[in-house]
Structures are given as C-alpha cells and as structure tokens.
Amino acid sequence: MLTAENWPIAANMLSFGDRAPGGGHIKDAPSGVWAQQLRQVRELGFDHIDPTDAWVPLAALSEERLEEFRRVLDGEGLSISSISMTRNSVADARNGERNLADAHRLVDLAPSFGAGVVNTGFMQALTEEQSRQVWFWLVQGHVDSPELRDLALERIGELGDHARRSGVEISLEVYEDTYIGTPEDAVAFIRDLGHEAVGLNPDLGNLIRLHRELPPVMEMFEAVLPHANFWHIKNYSRDFDPATGAYSTAPLPLKYGYVNYRQVIRRALELGYSGPFCCEHYGSDSLGVCAENRDYIRQVLGSALADPADDSSPAAASGR
Asked: How far apart are CA 285 and CA 38, in angstroms?
C-alpha cells in the first residue's frame, strides 16, 4: 500500500547533463563518475532516481556497462522508479526509427531495474536559437507535423503492446506544439490510441512557463489528471502585463510557484493517481530544489491520505 513515506519520488538526473567532468559523454565515463553524481542525490535523502537519457542513456549501454551501472546504483543505495526519454521522439522524421528502437530497449530494461514506467513524448532537440537563450522556452522550438500523427499513434501503440507484455507502462509527456501539446490534444491522442498500458505525464509546468495565453490552471489539470500514470513535477512563476502584453516566467520551487500543487496533488489522488513522481527544476541548485520539492510532496500526500474525506476516492478504494 502506498503511503506518504514510501511513495516513489525520484530525482531527475537531468541537472547533471550528459558531459563527463573531463570531457566526452557521461555514458563513456568511468563508473566512479556516475557514483559521485548519484551520491549527491542520495545525500539529499532521495531513494529513487530517473536516469533520463539526457544523462546516462541506458539504451546505449553495453551489457557490461549496464552491470557496472547496476553495481553503482546498488552501492549508492538508490532505486529506479521510472526511466525518461528526453527530446528523442519516436515520430522524429529523421531519427524516429532509432528512437523507437531505444524506447523498446528501455521497456525491456525497465523491469530489471524495478521501474514501472517508461516516459517518452514528442519533444525534439533544441534549436540553436533556443540554446542561446537564458531559458530555452523563450523562443519557438520544434512543431510537430500533422502528417505524422498517425505514425506517432502507430509507434506508441507498438510500444504500449510491448510495455503490456513486460508489465510496465508508457507515459506521454505533455509538451507544447507536439501531438500532446495542449491538455485537449493530449486527451484526444490518448482516446484515439485507446491503449490501457499508455497514459499521460501531466507535466503542465512545460506549458505554464510559456509566454502565451493559457486556460485556467485547474481547468487544464482536470483534463489530463484522469489519464495520468506518471508525473514530472515542477513549478514556475507566471506574470502578465495587460498594458504591454508581456509575459514573464521563471522556475520556482513547487510551494512558491504559480500552480497550487497542494490543490492539484490532492485532486489527482481523488481521481485515483498512484504513479511515481519525478522532481525537476531548472536553474540555480536544481538538485537542492528537487529535494525540497520531494519533502513538500510527501507532506501534501500525508495530509491528503490522512483526510477522511478521501476515503471514498479511487486511490483509497483500490488500496493504493
């Protein structure tokens, strides 16, 4: 039975990046480098990580290196609750087939690490202009082509079939200007797909940070939360000046940002959410902020799960 104390809440390893301290890709670094980075996570009290492929791409490791990774992970006392693919869309016109193969590899690997979810989506590599910004979301990035939506459905369905056989789930990350770029688009994609092993990652922080008009926050969450099976969770400030039409956003810890996550998490539990959380943050001491966010989530979970008003919720009824 899930409790506030044992609910899987992971640190996303994205903040370490994919470059080794001495140069080269982190996947080719000595395992001691992995251990040193993982130790920082453990020292902050995390029990779980998400080894995103923007850090160490597990799908690219040989069997020998995978065993090294397992030994290091065990040595640092950490577990994997989810594995995320980042900017490697299976509908990428150039690299989609390779990305699909990598996703299948992660579905094969996930059970051996105890991970119940493989997270993916349709976001693609940052443009050069995005990479030059203080925050990459300040300028337009990739926009999915409507002509490839059917291919996206086909490939995610294929992944879903594989995930079902492997006893894991696929989660699709809501991300602007993709096939699941708005709550409405995301729900439509899930309904068109109609696969019980595929759900949504309601990472609406990806939308809150945009400098564009958005629907009310709770209206957006109400659409996606019923389909959620995993959650990249982060928050931002958000301001709009009607006199100039200018928006302003910046990353903030969960408790201080624009989204009231106490309200949103409690609503998610009412709707039966029982998936892992994965803490993300951009800028400053990202890892330290993630640790604060983990503690905040546990407090909210503890309050919600102890509330007699939640006894009739789907999560309580299922014993999860």
From this structure: 15
In-domain check, residue 73:
yes
Residue 307 included in any domain:
yes
Q: Which helix (H) or strand (E) covers residue 101, if one does?
A: helix 96-113
Tokens standing for residue 133: 């910004």
Q: Is residue 221 part of a domain?
A: yes
Q: Report the C-alpha gap between 141 and 99 in whole angstroms.
A: 19
By three-state DSSP, how is residue 187 classified?
helix
Predicted TM-score of the model (pTM): 0.94
* Count of domains forming the chain: 1
pLDDT digits 0-9 by tens, 268-311? 999 999 999 999 999 999 999 999 999 999 999 999 999 875 44
* 198-201 vs 246-252, strand pairing mode: unpaired
How do residues 18-54 score in pLDDT, each as one tens digit?
A: 999 989 999 999 999 999 999 999 999 999 999 999 9
Q: How far apart are CA 156 and CA 191, in angstroms?
A: 13
Q: Provide the residue type at 8 as one letter.
A: P
Query: What would the pLDDT profile of 176-204 be if each residue is shown by its tens digit?
Result: 999 999 999 999 999 999 999 999 999 99
With respect to residue 3, please indicate whether it lies within any of the assigned structural domains: no
User: What is the domain-level CATH number for residue 97?
Assistant: 3.20.20.150
- The average pLDDT across 84-91 equals 97
Q: Which residues contact 234 (CB under 8 A, 6 or more apart)?
A: 203, 205, 251, 254, 279, 280, 281, 282, 293
pLDDT at 312 over 50: no
CB 209 within 8 A of CB 280: no
Structure tokens at 187: 């729900």
Per the structure, the complete domain to which residue 278 belongs is given by 9-317
